[in-house]
Amino acid sequence: MESKKITLIPGDGIGPEIVEAVQDVLEASGAPLDWETADAGISAVKRHKTPIPQDTLESIKRNKVALKGPTTTPVGGGHKSVNVTIRKSLGLFANVRPAISLPSVQTRFSDVDLIVVRENIEDTYGGIEHWQTPDVAQCLRIITRPGSLAVNRYALEMAKSMGRDKVTCVHKANIQKMTDGLFLETFRELAPEYPELECDDILIDNLCMQLVSHPERYDVLVLPNLFGDIVSDLCAGLVGGLGVAPSANIGDDRAVFEAVHGSAPDIAGQGVANPTALLLSAIQMLHYLGMHDHANDVDTALRMALLSGIRTRDLGGHATTLEFTRVVINALPRRDRYPKSHIAHQGKAPKMPRVSEEDAATEEPKDWTVVGADVFTHGDGIDKLPKKVGPLQLNMVSNRGTKMYPGPQPDIFMVDWYRCRYLAEREVSDEEIHDLLKKVAEGYPWVHVEKLHLCDGDPMFSLAQGE
């Protein structure tokens, strides 16, 4: 097989140690790989003044595949997450996280075998946040039809190609009726195209309860970004923690495989880090590259090493990184003694376009009209709000989502931020909304405005609690 060049990102903390260990195992397996080392993380900030240099992104674009060690993301400040930046910059729309029980890794469950497919770009991870008043911060949750079609299509195609039985869409569409409703709607649109799969859905809160009780009931889960982030770590906990949790980020024609655990600077350089998560990610990478025999050899060797009782201290053992790596290498099957192995259950996921032309061709609504605006104000009340400006009538005011006008004011704690809904009985123009904002500003400063639409007569905006 022709050698494949891979972008290699050592990362921060223990990253270089576990990356070196995984390189040694892959070389011993005979996998035909060449490496092109690239910078990212704190080390890159020190050298390049940025956590993700453009040269690193160009390397991944050129080589199409990368293997990445953990990088450090500062909490509450500093540079943005390298992982999120790479995913968004390269359009890696699907995060694939298998959670599969490993031998001799003691957990409450021994029969977990499921895959989390997480939408990887949208949702609150758009990073669109604003302080609107000194007491109110806002984060916009963006769910799109093309993005939802992409990850739902991918999950279904992956399940089909890997011989899985069931795909479950996870959501909170009973509360977030428009955003999660759209995610669920696209799943239901696609599901009939896969009659060989059982397709169902579940509320995110119910799923979390079920997973810690009966994880064997689930096969492939597909979720929006934030829910997927949380559930994928929960599932990792079912099989032993992030130290045994692989991860793949899949795009149209490129992919990045990484360990999702932290960079653990407190043990960096001590030679005790566990390379298992990154090694499992490398196995995913080999399957992605079509190197299934090498992938299965490494998977077999890893399982044999764990069965032998050799474990790093995070898994209850005493082995150093080097000792564990040597045991895995010594357990590699000899090709002249073993027949070709079958494709493992976490085999190659399909490479595919983000959205097919048919999926992307969303029919334009017949009647999409602006009939009002939600004006968000900063102030100590609503007494100075105009009740009517041109065709726009004050219809409702809410505070933190709860209706407080018209009718009796609820006995709740108020903040200095109000959503003031103005509606008209006909379509309104931008000029009329501008006039509204000028009039509102005479009483209170406004901090944000959202147009309100009807689509074929149906409101495309939510009601307040109690409305």
What is the helix tally?
13
Strand order of the largest sheet: 2-1-3-12-11-4-5-10-8-9
What portion of residues is helical? Answer: 25-40%
Mean pLDDT reading: 91
Estimated structural class: alpha/beta
From the N-terminal CA to the C-terminal CA, the straight-line distance is: 65 Å
Largest sheet: 10 strands, mixed
Plain-language structure description:
- The protein has 467 residues and is an alpha/beta fold.
- The protein has 13 helices and 19 strands.
- Strand 8, helix 6 and strand 9 form a beta-alpha-beta unit.
- Helix 1 packs parallel to helix 11 and helix 5 packs across helix 6.
- The protein is elongated, with a radius of gyration of 26 Å.
- The relative contact order is 0.13.
- About 3% of the residues have low confidence.
